[in-house]
Design goal:
The complex is a heterodimer of chains A (about 550) and B (about 400). With about 550 residues, chain A is an alpha/beta fold. Helix content of chain A is about 30%, strand content about 25%. Chain B has about 400 residues and is mainly alpha-helical. Chain B has a two-stranded antiparallel ribbon with strand order 1-2. The chains are: A alpha/beta (about 550), B mainly alpha (about 400). Chains A and B meet through α11, α12 and β21 of A and α10, α11 and α12 of B.
């Protein structure tokens, strides 16, 4: 039993209902001051919902929140921020068109006071931190507060220099050299995440929630994040860390809480458990690690790419792809490794005709040169592309499950020239059972499905077009462990049925599990090719960072 | 059986139907002339004609909105369509037109086809501006909203200058075919219902319809799924412009004149309002034909109700009514989506400032329609009620 003063945050009996779903069912969670508390669970287990309640995005239907021993009620993120709780969302919540500095100080911009009263800045000790007393805001009568604000900057001008100085300090503390004046949208995802972290630090938060921070990061960026985390812990901050990656959780966490189907399964010390046990709690069963690539017998060469070059979208930038050549056989999985921005997505998009017509080189499909100008042509030629960003590029939230699956093969669902509901149901029944989509009905809303099931729907959509070459762009991003294993098995089965598969992934173990061969890209160039037997994580990382060693600080 | 019938319309559409019924009943009771009792056919004819005219291009607006775009130009398209029709007739049969004689069915057919063709051309122009020049739909159709009306007037004036003794901004249309359309309300209503049925079939039962929804739901994903999004857009904007062109012909018939300066002015917003009231989402991908039809009926019924009750010209208050109806309908639709118990109508300083605005609005409206003292009374009552609401909201929040 720990003394109550050691508890930084307690959530007791939290229940949250959404229309038709019980997202959280009497979940209780105690987080000790200064610990790194990992929260594990499959997608849909309620992790993000729980964290959104903690950070004031949602209000719970039942249960109570305690921060530093006091019961609190948040009616918005501002309340949570004032109580010293900051969240770094899984989906980054930055304004892309504003500068980095503006994003970090958004809503709390320092102002120069009128009539030369000096500069009023928000808590300056953000970088050093003052976790002992996170809620040290003064309690003033309302009118006094208003007057105070009026004379100390409410009407003052934006203190741009102060803004940039504060942002630069915070970023320097995170060993980053991002210029605070850069437009946020032009940063890579890893850097954008750092900006989010800097924003959380600027709040002087004593409790920081990180919702799957490494899901979009490369290994080097993850390592930098881990160093940041240990620095935050030295300052005594409490961190709530959501992740699917067991290895990461076991390296970082002091304690681990497992959620399953909106219920609290257990909270344990890291030393008292094992990754296999935690994974078992998460899915309610044990998952064996599989190697899928054994005993495949690749057939003839299906797709051949030769000296593919893609010029930059804007003038004055480096080419997006330079002289890339590779081939894929039927019944084989080719993995493409590379850091974020190395050109993995561009390769797939160019093959699929998304990038338009300004590429050079040759692409041959079954020995015939092809040049697709629109995804439709690629689709008709027997190619399929499962896109990287499911929500933005794959899913139709306004269509139901059946509509999402049948979209590319609607001609098969018609009677005469009209769509038939029954025909469509029969059409999608195939891919639903083939890919193992768990849905109450083909006419359920796609948004009600978990990430893994949504991804299966999109793969099912493309299987209906009976492709010969399947391009998968980071298909398991943001998908939980159980669904990942199912997707691996599915991809393996498709490959054994004779499809040629090209798979990119931001997780190396995934490529090593699935691929027969791995090619590595760095800055739009092909730097290495490994057969499965040769490939190791170290070799791939070395090739992926080959030409940019100067740029990556380790 | 009952459940099948119920499923045919969505819940929001049933409430819209109920609202239409309520508006009719209230008007029938309050109207001191009792026109709904005494001249039911005449009243029905009025509403039916107005609904059909609005509904025809509201369907076009709905299709564009469902495809994720917006067409602000339909009012000007109505004017241009009428002008093109009348000018073509003037060019082909100048003497008959000037002496108000029949011009013959062939000329009328050619003129009407020319109008519809103009609709197709304008829709194509929109698509080009949006997909090739890459203007946002709002900007592209804002430009044609302003430009087409001016162009219509220029066509009208130079057409009349060339073919008649005097330059004019109006062309009278007296052909018996147009008169027949004006006097026989079943023609526009039939056209409207046929068009609604065809649009319903298009959106719910064809591949193109599904592609329209996909385009509106997620344009990038639609392209990556192999849909030729530019072609789908082309269809949507042409459909929008051609329905407006068709409505333009009916306006010419109805008023026996093509008047590019005023015909259809501001109607684009009524069409968008009908679509939105009927449940179309301006972010695209969501909306139905039955909803849009009911939205158009609802707008016209409410406008008619106010004209019956107030007696002064309905056109004065038409815009105001449409505005209020849109706000109320969309507010209720949102409330139906997910009721939030902590929602407050008059929070903070914004709420305080809103109280006198709403009171002033209620007061001045009453003052204009039923005299000064009634206005003062209504304004003060509304203000007091709103202050009570504000206090109640404040209290109940604090109680939590």
């Amino acid at each position: 039993m720990t003394a109550s003063s050691d508890i930084a945050v307690a959530m007791r009996g939290i229940t949250k209902r959404f229309p038709g779903v019980l997202a959280l069912d009497k979940v209780t969670l105690e987080v000790r001051r200064g610990e790194l508390h990992a929260i594990c669970g499959e997608n849909g287990a309620g992790k993000s919902t729980l964290m959104k309640i903690l950070s004031g995005v949602y209000t719970p239907d039942e249960g109570q929140l305690e921060v530093a021993g006091h019961t609190v009620r948040f009616s918005g993120t501002r309340d949570a921020e004032r109580a010293g709780i900051a969240i770094i969302h899984q989906e980054l919540a930055l304004v892309e068109d504003l500068s980095v500095a503006a994003n970090i100080m958004l809503g709390r911009e320092p102002r120069t006071a009128i009539a030369g009263c000096g500069t009023s800045l928000p808590p300056q000790d953000a970088a050093t931190g003052n976790p002992e007393n996170p809620r040290s805001f003064r309690v003033l009568p309302k009118w006094k507060k208003a007057m105070d604000g009026f004379f100390h900057g409410q009407l003052g001008l934006l203190d741009l220099a102060g803004c940039e100085r504060l942002a630069a300090d915070l970023l320097a503390g995170l060993e980053s050299s991002i210029d605070p004046r850069t437009r946020t949208g032009s940063l890579r995802v890893g850097d954008q995440q750092l900006v989010e972290i800097a924003k959380a630090l600027s709040l002087d938060a004593s409790v920081i929630v990180m919702d799957e921070p490494t899901s979009a990061l490369t290994e080097a960026e993850s390592a930098r994040l881990e160093r940041t985390i240990s620095r935050l812990r030295e300052q005594g901050r409490t961190i709530l860390y959501i992740s699917h990656k067991m290895e990461e959780v076991f390296r970082l966490a002091d304690r681990i809480t497992v959620l399953r189907d909106g219920r609290h399964v257990c909270s344990v010390d890291r030393c008292d458990t094992t990754p296999a046990e935690v994974t078992g709690w998460m899915v309610g069963r044990e998952i064996a690690g599989h190697q899928f690539h054994e005993h495949r017998s690749p057939g003839p060469c299906l797709l051949e790419v030769e000296r593919l070059c893609l010029p930059a979208a804007e003038l004055g930038r480096a080419d997006r792809l330079t002289e890339i050549s590779f081939r894929v056989h039927a019944g084989e999985i080719l993995g493409i490794a590379g850091l974020m921005g190395a050109g993995r997505t561009e390769v797939l998009e160019t093959i699929f005709g998304v990038a338009g017509d300004d590429w050079t080189g040759q692409i041959r499909l079954e020995d015939r040169p092809v040049r697709f100008r629109h995804p439709r042509e690629a689709c008709q030629a027997g190619l399929a592309l499962v896109t990287e960003d499911r929500k933005r590029l794959g899913l139709f939230a306004n269509l139901d499950v059946a509509g999402n699956i049948s979209l590319c093969s609607l001609a098969k669902a018609t009677v005469g020239r009209l769509l038939s509901r029954r025909q469509e149901e029969q059409l999608v029944a195939g891919p639903i059972s083939q890919t193992g989509v768990k849905t109450p009905s083909p006419h359920a809303a796609i948004t009600g499905l978990s990430g893994g099931n949504q991804q299966k729907c999109i793969i099912g959509r493309w299987l209906l077009t009976q492709p010969r070459v399947l391009l998968l762009d980071d298909p398991t991003r943001g998908i939980d462990v159980g669904a990942k294993a199912e997707l691996y098995a599915l991809i393996d089965r498709l490959c054994r049925e004779g499809l040629a598969v090209i798979l990119t992934s931001s997780e190396l173990p995934e490529l090593l599990t699935l691929a027969d061969r791995v090619i590595v890209l760095a800055e739009g160039r092909l730097t290495a090719e490994f057969s499965r037997a040769e490939a190791t994580e170290q070799k791939i990382m070395a090739a992926a960072t080959a030409s940019r060693l100067a740029g990556v600080r380790t | 059986m009952i459940s099948r019938t119920l499923r045919w319309l969505r819940q929001s559409e049933w409430s819209l139907l109920l609202a239409i019924f309520a508006a009719v009943v209230i008007t029938a009771v309050i109207d001191s002339n009792h026109s709904y009792y005494e001249r039911p056919l005449e009243s029905l004819r009025d509403i039916a004609r107005n609904t059909a005219l609005l509904g025809i291009f509201a369907l076009g607006a709905a299709v564009v909105i469902i495809a994720g775009g917006i067409d602000l130009s339909s009012g000007s398209m109505i004017a241009l369509s009428g002008t093109v029709c009348a000018t073509t007739m003037l060019a082909l049969a100048p003497t008959e037109m000037m002496s108000f004689k029949p011009v013959g069915p062939l000329v009328v057919t050619i003129a009407c086809s020319a109008s519809l063709l103009t609709g197709f051309l304008v829709g194509t122009l929109h698509t080009w501006l949006i997909t090739v020049v890459r203007l946002p739909p709002f900007i592209a159709t804002l430009a044609t909203l302003v430009g087409l009306r001016s162009f219509a007037r220029a066509v009208c004036e130079s057409g009349t200058a060339a073919m008649t003794p005097t330059k004019s901004a109006l062309i009278n249309v007296a052909d018996p075919l147009f008169k027949a359309v004006r006097d026989n309300v079943s023609i526009p209503v039939t056209v409207f219902l046929l068009l609604a049925a065809a649009t319903w079939l298009l959106l719910s039962r064809t591949v193109l319809g599904r592609h329209l929804q996909a385009l509106g739901g997620n344009e990038q994903a639609a392209r990556l799924a192999g849909i030729r999004t530019d072609n789908v857009k082309w269809f949507a904007y042409c459909f929008g412009a051609m329905t407006a062109a068709l409505a333009g012909l009916f306006y010419v018939a109805n008023e026996s004149v093509a008047a590019p300066v005023n015909q259809g002015r501001g109607h684009e917003l009524n069409a968008i309002a009908a679509a939105v009231v009927g449940g179309c989402s301006l972010s695209g991908g969501v909306g139905t034909v039955p909803g849009t039809v009911l939205g158009a009926v609802f707008l016209r019924v409410v406008i008619d109700a106010v004209s019956k009750i107030i007696k002064t010209g309905a056109d004065v208050y038409e815009g105001l009514i449409v505005g209020i109806v849109v706000v109320l309908a969309v507010t209720f639709a949102q409330a139906g989506g997910g009721p939030r118990h902590d929602r407050r109508l008059l929070p903070g300083a914004l709420g305080l400032c809103t109280i006198p605005i709403l009171a002033l609005l209620a007061g001045s409206l009453t003052a204009m329609t039923s005299g000064g003292w009634a206005g003062v009374g209504t304004g003060m009552t509304a203000g007091l009620l709103l202050i009570c609401l504000r206090i109640w909201e404040h209290r109940s929040r604090r109680a939590e």
